[in-house]
Design a protein that fits this description.
It is an enzyme of class 2 (transferase). It comes from Thalassolituus pacificus. It catalyses: 2 GTP = 3',3'-c-di-GMP + 2 diphosphate. This is diguanylate cyclase. This protein folds into 3 domains: about 160 residues, Jelly Rolls (Sandwich), CATH 2.60.120; about 210 residues, Up-down Bundle (Rhopdopsin 7-helix transmembrane proteins), CATH 1.20.1070; about 150 residues, Reverse transcriptase/Diguanylate cyclase domain (Alpha-Beta Plaits). It contains 16 helices and 16 strands. The strands form 3 sheets. Strands 1, 3, 4, 5, 7, 8 and 10 form a 7-stranded mixed sheet that branches. It has a 5-stranded mixed sheet with strand order 13-14-12-15-16, with helices on both faces.
């Protein structure tokens, strides 16, 4: 239902009719006898005065300007004006129903405006002025109540000033309508963009978090970063829901840089996802080749003044179209080749491409209307999520299938062994011993003799019914890279082996000791609380300093950073305890090293 509601919002009251009979002519829009049933775009011929900030007095003799358009577009008022400067626009509206309470919707105008209605100052965005020092730019859409118009006549005076953007002026039409329709439409669009923004941010964060659990596959990471970047882009444009949700009012220069950079970085993340998901068809070299122009363009937006890089909007739009063509072509090829799940993403990609093309034309004043990108973003991300989840499901089904095949093979092997004669019993026993050794090798780290990461996670799962308190320690040897760099990897391996032996000496029979990888170790202490865990950590620190490494007497005074969590496996997920201990260890690592810390939320 929510998605259906979002889809219908593209046709709300803010999507105004711009019918020919309602266009202004000679600076006048006559609505006599023409009921306004929905917000009306104030398009057509306005009176125009260049390099004037006027209250509209004497505007009958001013030249005409076809709205909406920026004044640096040729032909709108006789010739093309420079992008930097200031001007006044005037429109007389006649025949308004005096019984109606009216309101105005003002899309963002580059880069500041002041609006007067019948001589009364009613709305402004930023601050207008006649010099760069006086002008203060702004961002975001605005709306204002006008109330009833007693005589049905309304003179609108729009003062616009720009010294910060390449183009200036009202490039989208102002909308006039009944107050209830304008306010309802404005609220609906704010909610519409906020809902899509929250969905994008939530999806992106979940995907990034999923990658932190399984770092072998970067598909989710690229997809999560791409989703978050789309969220930043959506949240800072149009109604800017990210700003009002976080109560932010950033400087205009920072705002415009974020707007452009997020637009240009998004395709780079998309290409990264394509390479990660379809590496055989979209190689690393292709990813780098197509990403390079976008990264260079983003660098220009970071280094150049806004006045310069906003002049490149047409080029940036061309790059975005290139990104749409590249990604769509790649997906079409993958669909043709029958790549798994590619058909799910293709419709979303094509819809997003249509939305991007529409908005590029909108930004270049070749179309008028509302942005399509928010809904295009959401549909595209949903299609990519479906592909991602479907691939995960297929992978799990493949694991189940292979496991079932292995189970059948083992059953067949058992039957054959059972049918063999007594003379082959020794060979069967030897085979059983070999299988047991393989299982041990699968569970035990070959260098230290401790459990490996997978075996520890299985132990945590199997101990869920353990009723007593447990302590989890995440231990990271300090400055281990210096040992490898200074004495060689053989010395590093000797240190790891000696440290594993030390852990076995300190641990009890019921404790679980594991090497997680590299110089990181974990200890699971059963029937142990915070006090016992601290005692273990102190003993470990003391004996580690005194540890002698065989054949490497020059290596001494070792230390480690330790994070500790305490809980009950029946109440708290074992991996959650492990991750919390990891975080506590990093806090020690980034502060003092050679110490330990109990995670604040897990001290019992």
């Amino acid at each position: 239902m929510i998605l259906a509601w979002l889809l219908t919002l593209s046709a709300t009251e803010l999507q105004a009719e711009i019918a020919q009979e309602f266009r202004a002519q000679q600076g006048v829009m006559n609505l006599s006898g023409r009921p306004v049933t929905q917000p009306l775009a104030l398009a057509g011929e306005w009176r125009f005065a260049w390099q004037q900030l006027s209250d509209g007095t004497g505007s009958d003799d001013w030249p005409l300007f076809v709205m909406p358009s920026t004044w640096d577009q040729s032909g709108q008022a006789g010739y093309q004006y420079p992008g930097q400067g200031y001007a006044t626009f005037v429109l007389d509206i006649q025949g308004l129903d005096p019984q109606v309470d009216w309101a105005l919707f003002v899309p963002e105008i580059a880069t500041s405006f002041r609006l007067l209605a019948n001589g009364r100052d009613i709305l402004h965005g930023g601050r207008v002025g006649t010099s760069r020092q006086e002008v203060q730019p702004y961002q975001g859409n605005r709306w204002v109540r006008l109330g009833g118009i007693a005589d049905g006549r309304l003179q609108l005076v729009l003062q616009v000033a720009n010294y910060h953007h390449h183009s200036a002026g009202p490039w989208q039409p102002l909308l006039l309508g009944p107050e209830d329709q304008i306010t309802r439409g404005y609220a609906q669009h704010v909610i519409y963009e906020a809902v899509i923004l929250l969905l994008l941010l939530l999806i992106g964060l979940l995907l990034v978090m999923e990658y932190t659990v399984d770092r072998k596959d970067r598909t989710g990471l690229w997809l999560g970063l791409f989703t978050l970047m789309l969220g930043v882009r959506l949240g800072t444009t149009s109604f800017a829901p990210l700003y009002w949700m976080l109560s932010l009012n950033p400087p205009w220069e920072l705002h415009i840089r974020v707007l452009y950079i997020s637009m240009l970085v998004s395709p780079v993340l998309l290409f990264g996802w394509l390479h990660s998901a379809f590496g055989t068809d979209f190689s690393r070299s292709l990813r780098n080749l197509f990403s390079l122009p976008f990264l260079l363009a983003a660098l220009l937006c970071l280094l150049l003044p806004p006045l310069w890089f906003t002049a490149l909007l047409g080029i940036f739009g061309g790059l975005l179209l290139l990104g749409v063509v590249v990604s769509t072509s790649a997906l079409l090829r993958m669909v043709y080749l029958g790549r798994r799940g590619a058909w799910l993403i293709l419709p979303g990609t094509m819809l997003l491409g249509v939305a991007v093309i529409h908005d590029v034309l909108l930004n270049n004043q070749l179309l008028s209307g509302q942005y399509w990108s928010p809904l295009g973003f959401l549909i595209f991300i949903v299609s990519m999520i479906c592909n991602f989840l479907l691939n995960r499901v297929w992978s799990r089904h493949e694991i189940v299938r292979l496991s079932e095949e292995l189970r059948l093979i083992n059953r067949e092997l058992e039957q054959r062994v059972a049918e063999r004669t007594q003379a082959l019993a020794e060979k069967a026993n030897a085979l059983l011993d070999a299988n047991q050794q393989l299982q041990v090798l699968a569970d035990v780290d070959g260098l230290t003799g401790l459990l490996n990461r997978r075996a520890l996670l299985e132990q945590l799962q199997q101990l869920k019914q353990w009723q007593g308190s447990v302590a989890v320690l995440w231990i990271d040897l300090d400055h281990f890279k210096r040992i490898n760099d200074g004495f060689g990897h053989a010395a590093g391996d000797a240190v790891l082996a000696a440290f594993g032996a030390l852990l076995r000496r300190l641990g009890r029979d019921r404790d679980r000791l594991a090497r997680l990888g590299g110089e990181e170790f974990a200890v699971l202490l059963l029937d142990c609380g915070a006090e016992g865990a601290e005692t273990f950590a102190r003993r470990l620190q003391q004996q580690l300093r005194e540890l002698q490494v065989p054949d490497w007497p020059q290596i001494h005074n070792l230390s480690a950073s330790t994070g500790i969590t305490v809980g009950r496996l029946g109440e708290t997920d074992g991996e959650e305890l492990l991750n919390a201990a990891d975080q506590a260890m990093y806090e020690v690592k980034h502060s003092t090293r050679d110490g330990y810390k109990i995670a604040a939320d897990y001290r019992r």
